[in-house]
Specification:
With about 250 residues, the chain is an alpha/beta fold. It has helices at about 20-30, 45-55, 80-85, 95-100, 105-120, 130-135, 140-150, 180-195, 215-220, 235-245, and strands at about 5-10, 40, 60-65, 90-95, 125-130, 160-165, 205-210, 225-230. An 8-stranded parallel beta barrel has the order 1-2-3-4-5-6-7-8, surrounded by 7 helices. Bound molecules: phosphoenolpyruvate. Its EC number is 5.3.1.1.
Length: about 250
C-alpha cells in the first residue's frame, strides 16, 4: 500500500460508544473532502464495521487497535487480523505501549502479531518506544534498535509495515521529546530499518506522543518524520483536522 505523506493516524483507544463513534466519523467525513495526505482512524473493534461503512469513499483509512497472533481458535475475547479485515479494516496497530507495558506483550509476541496482520493482508502499524526510565538512563536508541530487531518480521516491507515511534513517557502526558531528540530517534530507526529490510529506506516512520494542533506542524517538519500517530487529540474532529492541516 503506497501511502501519501504526511500520514496522520488517530487512535481512539477505548473511546467511542456507537453514537459517539458515529458523530466523530461524521465530523471527519464532512471536513475531509479527499485527503491529499493519508488520514486514518483506529476505532474500538465494536464500532469498526460501522465506522468503516460510514467512511467508505472518503479516502480515510480505518484500522483496528490490536489483533491476536493466530487467525482463529479458542482464544476467548480476542480478535484476529482476518476478523478485523472482514469488518472493514485495512490496517492494525500492534505493539502499542498500553499493550506492551500495560499487558506485558513481548517483542516476540508483537512480531507474531505483525506477521498475522501481514498474512491477513492488513497494513501493520508497529509501535516502539522507550520508557521514562530508559530515556533518563540515555538508553533510548538502544531500546528502539532492540525492539525493531526483535519485532520486525523477516521479509516485511515498506509497503506493508509503518513504524510508529512513541516514547512511553510522552503518551497522554503533554510532554514530548525535543525536536532534536525526535530527529535523532527517527534517524536511528531509519538506520536500523535499512539493515532489517531491503527497502528500509522507504518505510514510513511516524512520531506519536502528545501530538496536538499546536505542536504537530513543528514535529512533522522534523527531517525523517513521515507523519504522526495521535491519541487523545484524535477524539475531536476539529483538533484532529488541525493536526492533519499542519502536516
Ligand atoms: C497514543 O496512545 O498512541 C498516543 C500517541 O496518545 P496521545 O496522543 O494521547 O499522547
Amino acid at each position: 500500500m503506497a501511502l501519501a505523506r504526511p500520514i496522520v493516524f488517530g487512535n481512539w483507544k477505548m473511546h467511542g460508544l456507537r453514537a459517539e463513534a458515529k458523530a466523530l466519523a461524521g465530523g471527519l467525513a464532512e471536513r475531509v473532502g479527499r485527503p491529499s495526505a493519508t488520514l486514518g482512524v483506529f476505532p474500538p473493534a465494536t464500532v469498526l464495521a460501522e465506522v468503516a461503512a460510514q467512511l467508505a469513499g472518503t479516502g480515510i483509512l480505518v484500522g483496528g487497535q490490536d489483533c491476536h497472533d493466530k487467525p482463529k481458535g479458542a482464544f476467548t475475547g480476542s480478535i484476529s487480523a482476518p476478523m478485523l479485515k472482514d469488518a472493514g479494516a485495512v490496517a492494525v496497530i500492534v505493539g502499542h505501549s498500553e499493550r506492551r507495558h500495560g499487558l506485558g506483550e513481548t517483542d516476540a509476541l508483537v512480531r507474531a502479531k505483525v506477521q498475522a496482520a501481514l498474512e491477513a493482508g492488513l497494513l501493520a502499524i508497529l509501535c516502539i518506544g522507550e520508557t521514562e526510565a530508559e530515556w533518563l538512563e540515555g538508553r533510548t536508541l538502544e531500546v528502539l534498535e532492540r525492539q525493531l530487531d526483535q519485532s520486525w518480521p523477516q521479509g516485511a516491507s515498506a509497503a506493508r509495515v509503518v513504524v510508529a515511534y512513541e516514547p512511553v513517557w510522552a503518551i497522554g502526558t503533554g510532554r514530548t521529546p525535543t525536536l532534536d531528540d525526535i530527529g535523532r530517534s527517527h534517524a536511528a530507526i531509519r538506520a536500523r530499518l535499512e539493515r532489517l529490510a531491503s527497502d528500509g529506506d522507504k518505510v514510513a516512520i511516524l512520531y506519536g506522543g502528545s501530538v496536538k494542533a499546536d505542536n504537530a506542524g513543528a514535529i512533522m517538519a522534523v527531517a525523517g518524520v513521515d507523519g504522526v500517530l495521535v491519541g487523545g487529540a484524535s477524539l475531536d474532529p476539529d483538533g484532529f483536522f488541525a493536526i492533519y492541516r499542519a502536516g
